[in-house]
Design brief:
Low-confidence stretches: none
Strand order of the largest sheet: 3-1-2-4-5-6-7-8-9
Structural class: alpha/beta
Radius of gyration: 17 Å
Mean pLDDT: 94
CATH topology: TIM Barrel
Strand content: 15-25%
Number of strands: 9
Number of domains: 1
CATH architecture: Alpha-Beta Barrel
Length: 222
């Protein structure tokens, strides 16, 4: 007998897996990832285009049960763009209720106003090199909490200069707990990004994607 999942309890899920966190201030820590399907952006350098379509329809409680069974407290809800599915909010609420520490990786093109207070937000602002800078929702910036993080994925020196300007204009170092500068894999040399950051005296953390160093850059489920 097939059970129909009510629409308000249903998510499109690409994958659930446990690995180590590859980015953010949580880098290197064991983490379970819930990757949701769908995205409202089409960034030039996107490394998760497989999320644009498909995904299994799953009940929220089933996803929470699977995550809890994996036995890792730290959980990241990611995509795609997880907030493109409105049921991402109750998913995070129930993960918190189940005792998990929840991270949300979001592009910042959709309002974070309804995201639960306990969630640690990683807001990924899009520079011009992404092709999607016009879709940054700047009204999200005042909603950031001191524990949240802002990430910039940089494909060029011009992207870096844009990020530096945004950091200063919006005084992001006073709003968020961490500012992250991440080079597009294969496009910007990490050592160049370090040099630029030091020269500009930016109050930001240079990061590389740990999972792309440990495993092949296109590996899934890591």
């Amino acid at each position: 007998m097939t059970t129909t999942i009510p629409l308000d309890e249903r998510l499109r899920v690409i994958e659930v897996y446990t690995s180590v966190q590859g980015e953010s201030s949580f880098v290197g820590l064991p983490c379970t990832f819930v990757r949701l399907a769908g995205c409202n952006l089409r960034c030039v350098w996107c490394d998760s285009t497989f999320t644009f379509k498909g995904g299994a329809h799953r009940a929220i409680d089933d996803v929470v049960a699977e995550v809890s069974a994996l036995g890792v407290r730290l959980v990241e809800v990611t995509g795609g763009e997880p907030l493109a599915q409105r049921q991402a909010i109750p998913l995070m609420e129930r993960l918190i209720a189940a005792g998990h520490q929840v991270l949300l990786e979001t592009s910042g093109s959709i309002s974070i106003e309804r995201v639960p207070e306990a969630v640690h937000i990683i807001l990924d602002l899009k520079p011009p090199g992404s092709g999607e800078a016009a879709k940054n929702l700047w009204s999200n910036v005042p909603l950031l909490k001191p524990k949240d993080e802002v990430k910039f994925v940089l494909a060029s020196r011009a992207d870096f200069e844009w990020a530096a300007q945004v950091i200063r204009e919006h005084r992001l170092n006073e709003r968020a707990g961490e500012l992250l500068l991440s080079p597009v894999f294969g496009a910007v040399r990490p050592e160049d990004l370090v040099d630029w950051t030091l020269a500009e005296r930016l109050p930001a953390r240079v990061q590389v994607q740990l999972h792309k160093i440990i495993w092949p850059p296109d590996a899934r489920g890591v």
